[in-house]
């Protein structure tokens, strides 16, 4: 855990998140190829095993821990507990759904079951690439201002400026 905090601080949250998603995507494709070709080539079982290990490694580098950093940095002190609660609920609800439905989906899709994960990972990667900002070394006010600039063409005030303006009035 201690080394991972240094890695996150050095490499940046967004880049680790994107690298993890892309690694998971490639691993899911490799698992699909391994399962599809398993009946033709016995050594494909090794490809599938390596792909599973890589999938877990990439998850632990990016999509496992990074969303918790990002959620904590995207919200100010007031709404942060609610945001973390919603993120936790979504995380555990999705884990529950995958856990309960995986066997049925695997029975339905056969060796192509991980193609569904690959497609979802591609969507997540594209969303993160275009919508998730880098929060490394930025204060909450800077992150909030960056979001406001994307939404509003006019000069946007940060939360700190808004609070200072209300104190002066």
Automatic annotation (TrEMBL):
It comes from the Eukaryota. Gene3D superfamilies: MFS general substrate transporter like domains. GO terms for molecular function: D-glucose transmembrane transporter activity. Its main location: membrane. Pfam families: Sugar_tr. The keyword NAD does not apply. Residues 1-136 form the Major facilitator superfamily (MFS) profile domain. Keywords: Membrane, Transmembrane, Transmembrane helix. It is found in: Membrane. It is a multi-pass membrane protein. The chain crosses the membrane at residues 16-37, 43-71, 83-106, 112-130. One of its GO terms (biological process) is dehydroascorbic acid transport. GO terms for cellular component: brush border; plasma membrane. PANTHER family: SOLUTE CARRIER FAMILY 2, SOLUTE CARRIER FAMILY 2, FACILITATED GLUCOSE TRANSPORTER MEMBER 2. This is GTR2 protein. The lineage of its organism: Eukaryota, Metazoa, Chordata, Craniata, Vertebrata. The gene is Slc2a2.
């Amino acid at each position: 855990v201690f080394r991972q905090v240094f890695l996150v601080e050095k490499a940046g949250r967004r880049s680790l998140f994107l690298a993890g998603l892309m690694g998971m995507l490639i691993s899911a494709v490799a698992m699909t190829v391994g399962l599809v070709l398993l009946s033709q080539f016995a050594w494909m079982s090794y490809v599938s095993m390596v792909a599973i290990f890589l999938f877990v490694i990439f998850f632990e580098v990016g999509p496992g821990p990074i969303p918790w950093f990002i959620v904590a940095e995207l919200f100010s002190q007031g709404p942060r507990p609610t945001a973390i609660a919603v993120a936790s609920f979504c995380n555990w609800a999705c884990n529950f759904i995958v856990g309960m439905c995986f066997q049925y989906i695997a029975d339905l899709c056969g060796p192509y079951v991980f193609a569904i994960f690959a497609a979802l990972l591609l969507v997540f990667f594209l969303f993160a690439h275009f919508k998730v900002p880098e929060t490394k070394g930025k204060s909450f006010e800077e992150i909030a201002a960056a979001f406001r600039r994307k939404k509003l063409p006019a000069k946007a005030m940060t939360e700190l400026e808004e609070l200072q303006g209300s104190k002066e009035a």
